[in-house]
Amino acid sequence: MNTEALFGTGQALEIAITAVVFYGYMVLLLRISGKRTTMSMTTFDFVSTVAMATIVGSTILQGTVSLLEGMVAVTVLVALQWVAGSVSARSPVIRHFITSSPAVLYENGQFNEENLMAERISREQLQQKIRAAGHGNLATVNAIVLESAGTVSVVEKGTLGDEVDPET
User: Fold this and answer.
1) How many helices (H) and strands (E) does the chain have?
2) Cα distance between residue 27 and residue 43, in whole Å
3) Cβ–Cβ < 8 Å for 105, 116
4) Angle at the Cα of 31 (from 26 to 101), degrees rounded to 5?
5) Which CATH superfamily is domain 103-156 in?
6) I want to staple 107 with a disulfide (CB 3.0 to 4.6 A). Which of 21, 44, 49, 143 is the partner?
7) b/e for 69-95, b at 16 or more Cβ within 10 A?
């Protein structure tokens, strides 16, 4: 039996130490960078997260990237994300470039077929979201909005939010 295939090359302790150190560093870095970094993800946030995960995985498991190199790379990505978030909070032009606008999918008893097609969402998928939000049918729903971060908001009739403005 090939024990190396089962247990690796004896670097398990090094991998464990690197993982613990990197984990602690990531928690510290994300706490310093603020809640915006871990908030619901925009496309930019998703890309940053995938890139960070790749760097962390390469650093911990492959051994081709040193711990310091991995930490520097992740720090640069978190800094870029922080800068992008700060700039987009102040600039509508940058915000428009980094985040998508909310899309009204249903309002006042009417499906917005154009937005459903553009966002590649079926009525069946929307019905699932309605049920998940605690509504058995559309009778109690005023609007359904696909938010910038990809979540779906179901606005009940007679509640604050009856006026749907996708530009806010």
Assistant:
1) 7, 4
2) 22
3) yes
4) 100
5) bsu07140 like domains (3.30.240.20)
6) 143
7) ebbebbeebbeebeebbeebeeeeeeb
Render pLDDT for 5-25 as a digit per residue (tens, 0 to 9). Answer: 655 666 778 888 888 898 888
Instruction: List Cα–Cα distances, 149 to 66, 146, 152, in angstroms.
Output: 33, 8, 9
Residue type, 140: T
Q: What angle do CA 44, 35, 161 make, to 5 degrees?
A: 80
Q: List alpha helices for 58-139, DSSP H.
A: 67-90, 92-98, 113-118, 123-132
User: Containing H/E element for 6?
Assistant: helix 3-7
d(CA 53, CA 46): 11
Q: To which H or E segment does residue 105 belong?
A: strand 103-107
Could you tell me the two tokens for 115? Answer: 């937005």
pLDDT digits (tens, 9 = 90+) for 118-132: 989 998 888 898 899
Q: To the nearest 5 percent, what fractions of the chain are helix, strand and coil?
A: 60, 10, 30
SS3 106: strand
pTM score, whole prediction: 0.62
Distance (Å, whole) CA 86 – CA 95 = 10
Return the residue matching tokens 């008893």: 109
